[in-house]
Design brief:
The chain is α/β, with parallel strands linked by helices. 48% of the residues lie in helices and 13% in strands. The protein has a 7-stranded mixed sheet, sandwiched between helices. Helix 1 (3-13) packs antiparallel against helix 2 (20-37), helix 2 packs antiparallel against helix 5 (90-122) and helix 3 (43-58) packs antiparallel against helix 4. It is globular, with a radius of gyration of 20 Å. It binds ribulose-1,5-diphosphate. The site of ribulose-1,5-diphosphate (RUB) has 18 residues, from helix 2, helix 6 and strand 6.
Amino acid sequence: MSRRVKQTVKDIKSLKVQGARNVAKAGVKAMMYAVEDSKAKTVNGIKADVVKAALEISGARPTEPMLRNYLDETIQFVASEIATVKTRSVKKFREMALKSENEYLQRMESDIKKLKDYGASMLNGGMTIVTHCHSSTVTGVIKEAHKRGKDLKVVACETRPRYQGRITAKELSRAGLDVTITVDLGVNKYLKKADIVLVGADAINSTGNLVNKVGTSSLARLAEIYDVEFFSCAETYKYDPLTMFGVRERIEEREKKEVWQRPPKKVEVSNPAFDITSAHHINGYVTEMGILPPSALPGIAEKKISKKRD
Ligand code: RUB
């Protein structure tokens, strides 16, 4: 495997690249590296290198359907090339493969632009927003609303054990927003006065349930107690089509030492990266196709993803 592909896998595993969108984007770029760096002398040889790299990358973090959906499209592209043998020229194949990966990146950009527009429109000046972890989609929505002159306050949970809440706090305060960071359960105090909770999404399953950073489900339950609306900002590509066939989204269990370097021998350490928030606690998903109720998202996403696969 090429050095650049190996580096991408390493960066995704270590969280140097974090958040579902950034991971998916890095995955698509790594597909370009696989095409460019392949030493194969035949088209089939390059295709084999691309598929191998796609499998390696999709295994880097198991709870990332957006990444898998884009890698699946790459594999479909390669497979259709194998079936139809559209070209035997290595140079031509490289051009075609890079063009299709570029189109995925462009699609991601146009989807996020639409999503930010829907998200920013639903926020009003004077609102206090609570968020958790670091979601580039959520920070994108908030910054877009801020750019439109809306005066917003943000409360970010620090997000143990890797403190991604600090990335959120840094990014938003640099953009000129009023930001408070709190230890995760300290958010209770702020939720009472908050107007809305916005979180990201790693995966959405066939019943509209949300898989996101561990702690999200407690936040959703608290929001319900205080009657605060709870939305997830997520492109429809976060939907996992396999869940329609009864496959359960796998929750990544990360290394124990992230929680405690040297725990006492008899203490069991648990470090799930994500948890599941029931659709019942979610007012809606802010997507590139508008603001969708959890019950509508799976059908709409399924259609979009399967159309691209054909
Ligand atoms: C990040 C996380 C984010 C989602 C959405 O977890 O849970 O809320 O990935 O992010 P981790 P985005 O830090 O473990 O990757 O909106 O950027 O796709």
